[in-house]
Amino acid sequence: MVNNNPIGLFDSGVGGTSIWKEIHALLPHENTIYLADSKNAPYGQKSKEEIIALSKKNTEFLLNKNAKIIVVACNTATTNAIKELRACYKVPFIGIEPAIKPAANNSETHTIGVLATKGTLSSELFNQTVLNYPNTKIIEQIGYGLVSLIEEGNIESKEMTQLLHDYLNPMVKENIDYLVLGCSHYPYLIPQIKKILPNHIKIIDSGEAVARQTKNILSEKVGLSDTKKSKQLFYTNSNPIVLKNIIGGKHTIIEENF
Predict the structure, then answer these.
(1) Backbone angles phi, psi at 68, to 5 degrees
(2) Above pLDDT 70, what percent of the chain?
(3) What is the pTM of this model?
(4) Dist. CA 172–CA 170, nearest whole Å
């Protein structure tokens, strides 16, 4: 089964490119369209109703570009809106959730940390997932300010370093041995996080698992591309500089007011 239409991805900004990179590495022959809704970032502080409305807007943008599958490359949008998206649209959706399962199943201290947005940690889906691990102590921390700093291109700033110390040091004191990154922006902070955490604490994000699931659904239900040279398009409704710096200069970035 061949389908050369693009994979569509959206996020509240540049963070979901961490998911795009994993998908592109696994499926280099697939065309992709990435939508960065940076004008409305961060989603984590918005109401469920606002998140659903923005997610529908993003979905319709990608469907108008003939997306054959949509990856919700945003934890907050997945945990708050994917149920409604699947009910409204026929296209398959791939969501992204904090990788609690591998962390809880492999933790030797039975204590893990989850760094995520308020929107993710307060969602019904996240709290249902937590109930599956009654024997694991889960330390939840809202990453206030982290997404905004990443969107501004201030990943290496003193303010970022201070916030990460404030959020991570209490988790270390609680004896976590896994840190789950519950926001697609946060993998860009891993180099800084590693400087703060002791070496024995493992960091987990969802990128590889999402890429594998995307490949599975394409293979089973939608169709893979057979193009020799794939095309990668990026749309943003904000300043493209940060997006360009994160993905590299060779890709096409289109500024559009959506």
Answers:
(1) -90, -15
(2) 100
(3) 0.94
(4) 5
